[in-house]
Amino acid sequence: VDTLSGGERARVLLARALAGQPAILLADEPTAGLDPYHQLEVMERLQSLAQSGATVLVVLHDLAAAVRFCDRLVLLDRGRVVAAGDPGEVTAAPNLRTVFRIEAARGQLPEGSYLLPRRRILDRAPGSTLI
Q: What's residue 130's pLDDT?
């Protein structure tokens, strides 16, 4: 275990959790520190587990993964629920603008919807400076 990278260690912990065939799985940022191949692998496995009837609750900051792999989203801002439900509705432009101060591009692929954060919205008061 001492020779594993952080990403490898995270994948081992997830494999260990999945080996127990849980009815409920809570995962906090399960793709953090993983390369794109393994990010997709982890999210596909979690999605498959959910589709098999398990309850899977995942905390993500990766909006693209959330839209692509999740059936329902809950968008929080400073501990309060801003929106909950269908990923397309929860990540509607006004919510992304308010909570994350971003604009996103959206599209559809055969395997589902995608969202690509594309531009920050800079809120600057007249005369203010950016650090």
A: 47
